[in-house]
Amino acid sequence: MQKKNLHALMHTSTHKRSYCANFLVQQAAHRGAEKRGNMEDRRKITIADVARAAGVSNSAVSYALNGRPGVSPETRDKILQTAHNLGWQPNRAAQSLSAAKSRSIGLILDGDPSLAAVEPYFMRLIAGVTQECEKNNYSLVLRRASTAQAEVPVIEQWIASGAVDGMILTNVEAHDARFSVLVDHPDFPVVALADPSMVPHLPTLFSDDVQACSMVLEHLTQLGHKSIAHISGPENLSHTQIREKALKNMCEQQGIQYTSIATDYTSEGGTAATLELLTRYERPTAIIYDNDVMALAGLVALRKNGFSIPRDMSLVSWDDSVLCSTVSPALTSMYRDVVNAGERVTQMLLALIDGHEAPSQKEKPYTLMVRSSTVTPHHA
Question: Boundaries of each HTH lacI-type domain copy (predicted)?
Answer without folding.
Answer: 45-99
